Amino acid sequence: MTDFAHSTVPKRPNLHYLKRVAKDLLRDALAGDPTAVNRLSGNASPKLADAHRAIANEHGHRSWAELKHTIQEGNGVVAARRANRHAMPSTNTAAGFMASAKATGWEPSRLSKIIVFVFQSGLARTLDQDPGFDEEPSLAPGNSRFFISNDREPAIAVSCLSPGATAMVNQMENQVALGGADTFIAYNLAGGIGPDIEPGTLSVVATAVRDDGISDHYLAPADTVDADPLLVERAHQGLASQFPSCEIRSTWTNPAVYRQTAEELQHYADSGVSLVESEAASLLAAAQSLGVSATAVLVTASVWNNGASQSAENPSLVATTHKQGFATLLDTLAPRRLSERTDPTTAQTEDEDA
Amino acid sequence: MMNDNDLPYTPATFLGWALKSGWKPEVLPVGVIFTFQPTVERWARSSSGPFGVCTDLTVSNAATFMSSDDGLPILLSCLNPGGASMVTQLEHLRFLGDETRFAGIVGTAGSMIGGLNIGDVRVVGTALRSDGISDRYLPPGNEVAGDEAFTKALRERINPHAEAVKTWTVDVPYRMTNADHEAAVAAKAQVTEMEIASLFAASRCLDLTAGAAVVVSDVSRADGWHSDWSDTAEPLNNAVLSMIHAMRAPVAQ
């Protein structure tokens, strides 16, 4: 008989999450927590296997292997092959897709070395008005916009997408197949988790929890994936010079924004994960697999704390940070050529004249 | 399955400040059709399409249109490929009111079997769930079906001579292994795409009536996938029109 009375696991089975719950149970039992020891049938010196078995029993299964099998079987017709999926060749490739497109007369425009993915329409409108960027529809995924700088070194492109990782990793694969960008950054809004992060805070992502589904296509199963540490350091250095509260943090990537359970959020808060969003783990996993560099830069828009989510009390602070952080990020990664820079004194005079 | 009390971040959290500050969509549609091909967006924007631009129900970096004829309002949402934005927009529409009852996809798909050629149109009855999003909305399972009656209505309007097909919904296009492909074909999948399982699952959870139709744009052969999008534009537009009528008919009765 399953007893969920003291269970802290979410109702949606998730092997990655249950592994963490088992580790937490083991840690608590070894620390002498009586509730944890009780869940382990009074065993005060348990091993990880004992914790796994206890969690499986709480979910109505005789063993961890049985629980694992049930979850994997239930996660889709091909899920049982996840363990080595990333290492197997694909029947459909970016090179093949590009060849098909070129056969119909398509040719890419000029390529950039860096691509920043953004997911808010306001930035696309800003780029549309910026004489330092040219729109390049030939490189845009379906129903999106793509801009390339004309006054920065190296050239930097901004891909304006709807939220979600599918089109983003698709574009990464196409760029690598074309010999284009080798550095990718996702710039997005995120939810903050716990009391230590405020709305309007900038973060550079060093690690992402892989609850996204897509990363399994690119890497062997694991709980997390890391960003390129050099790129993280570079982005952080540039952003922290303008935004002193900017820190390097970890994020939980969940592809359905309104399906974060309170139990999951509490778990990640307890684990020191500060952010939640929908793209970072997919980006970092695809980048590692493709041999390119990536990180994510996130602006906290809402915060979950003490069991409740709240949007920013001052949305304009989030919007301002989002816009200014984007400009600082671009300047950090690809500064404007000296001859192209506007003299701020002259600009001020012109403004006053106007 | 989760109930709303388990979910602390909701459309109310996100849209709450906008509603408080006076934002209110002018019209809520009875149905929403998601599409991912730029040819449909161009057609919707042109004077020949039966749509007007809709600015108050749009998703970031996407184009959204509302039907502009005298019939019941239908929203056409032109998104990037992938299910994440689509389910977010569904959640928003559900939160905003009870008006929206139907959700559909008209997209392109790859054919995994012989007998389906580029330009062929099929209604989708069932989807294999390799998408990563559907298990946020439903208990684990291999498949999810669209609404039976709506699927039947779509078949009658789009292709009455062909049975509804089963699709294999994946979350990325360039990571289909041979083993996965074979497993999907063994499970009777005839086409593959990237959004339908997510739509069917989210719609069940949100109590919306869902259906889907695809136009074959790629064909799997022994030497790999072959694509040709030139023959898909007109069938896609026609399928959108048929889906609009299929959504309106039961509401109008």
What does this structure look like?
The relative contact order of chain A is 0.13. In chain A, helix 3 (48-58) crosses helix 4 (64-74). Chain A is of the alpha/beta class and 354 residues long. Chain A has a five-stranded mixed beta barrel, surrounded by four helices. Chain A is globular, with a radius of gyration of 23 Å. Chain A contains 13 helices and eleven strands. Chain A has helices spanning 15-30, 34-39, 48-58, 64-74, 82-85, 94-103, 121-129, 166-178, 229-242, 262-270, 280-290, 315-333, 344-353; strands at residues 114-118, 133-135, 145-149, 156-160, 183-193, 202-210, 224-226, 247-253, 275-277, 293-305, 308-311. With 253 residues, chain B is α/β, with parallel strands linked by helices. In chain B, strand 3 and strand 4 (74-78) form a beta hairpin. Chain B has helices at 11-20, 38-45, 84-96, 148-158, 178-186, 196-206, 233-252, and strands spanning 31-35, 51-53, 63-67, 74-78, 102-111, 121-130, 143-145, 165-170, 191-193, 209-221, 224-227.
What key phrases describe this protein's structure?
heterodimer, A: alpha/beta, 5-stranded mixed β-barrel, 13 helices, 40% helix, 19% strand, globular, disordered N terminus, disordered C terminus, B: alpha/beta
Note the total helix count of chain A: 13
The chain-level mean pLDDT of chain B equals: 91
- The proportion of residues forming helix of chain B, as a percent range, comes to 25-40%
Strand order of the largest sheet of chain B: 5-9-8-6-10
Major sheet size, sense and barrel closure of chain A? 5 strands, mixed, barrel
